Amino acid sequence: MFFDTKIALIIRDDLAVWQKMNVAAFLTSGIAASYPDSIGESYEDASGNKYQRLIGQPILVYGADRAALARVLDRALSRGVQPALYTEEMFSTTHDAANRDAVRSVERESLNLVGLAIRAERKVVDKVVDKLKFHQ
After folding, report:
1. 20 is in which domain, residue-wise?
2. Which InterPro entries does the protein's record reference (predicted)?
């Protein structure tokens, strides 16, 4: 199936595995909340059990270092793409309001990014993630 949009997660490659998983989960929730049309129908197994709806298109996951994450953020913002973000400081908070405060306290150029998620037209996403490799 062909989609007009692409979803990409860009996660810093030097994180612990649990951190990568946590960042991916939070960033994906940002895409789902911001783009309700990206959510498919609910699932049902052959026994009639119902399951939650999921994002209905592939999500590409890229690895990046700090400099590449900063570049991706710059590229996204310059193209009018509003990303979801996760900063290193958010690992030490315990709730959503504290996460927002942690981000709000830092100028964009100084954000200690560990992950970004974007959804946009395919060609725009391709330009934003240009030269990144899929996460290993």
Report:
1. 5-134
2. DUF2000, Pep_tRNA_hydro_II_dom_sf
